[in-house]
Amino acid sequence: MIENIFPTPIYFDDVEHLDNIQKELGECAESLQYDITDKLRMYSNDHSYQTDIIGDKKLYNFAEELDTHIQNYCTELGFPIRPYKIDSSWFVAYKKGNYCTVHSHGHVDISGVYYVDTNGEDGNLFFVCPTPGLMTSLCFLKDPIWEHKPEVGKIMLWPGCLQHGVHENLTDHTRIALAFNIVFQR
User: Fold this and answer.
1) Measured between alpha carbons, how far is 29 from 91 in angstroms, rounded to an integer?
2) What does the pLDDT look like over 34-79, one tens digit per residue?
3) The whole model's pTM is what?
4) Are 181 and 108 in contact (CB under 8 A)?
5) CA separation (Å) from 16 to 20, 26, 32, 79, 155?
6) CA distances (Å), 160 to each of 43, 60, 105, 122, 182, in order?
7) Closest by alpha carbon to 19, among 152, 166, 158?
């Protein structure tokens, strides 16, 4: 018998109310000022990553949709639903040549992303194996990186401590995403 110990649950699904979400987030994303970050090599509307654009801009359609997916994720994890707050949220833009270096959001319970605008070829999101010791073993490691191709209307959730990044955008298309962090009440 094999027991998979310490699996890493990554959730992804399509949003249900795509037209409403796209209109709300698209209008908000277009109204913002973006600046490039030196460290992560992407454009963002907030370099402190401590504000909540979802709450500040009253993005109620997305907040309601996000709540549904957080509940789905928690149910699949067997984690009892409890009150949470959006710790932070911000828009990011990846123009040609932009990427995001490997990092985590370790202080939060769940991190996530929603793809507002992508052509699917403008830089995959990738996750790094969370068990570094497996990277030295030929019999256990198939690939230390797992990639996900971005799709408009796709929402993803994962443990905040999971190392992740975004490959370089080699296209002329600018990818827009909404990133967010969730913290549960203790």
Assistant:
1) 7
2) 988 777 688 898 878 889 999 999 999 999 999 999 999 999 999 9
3) 0.92
4) yes
5) 9, 16, 25, 23, 10
6) 21, 23, 5, 24, 8
7) 152
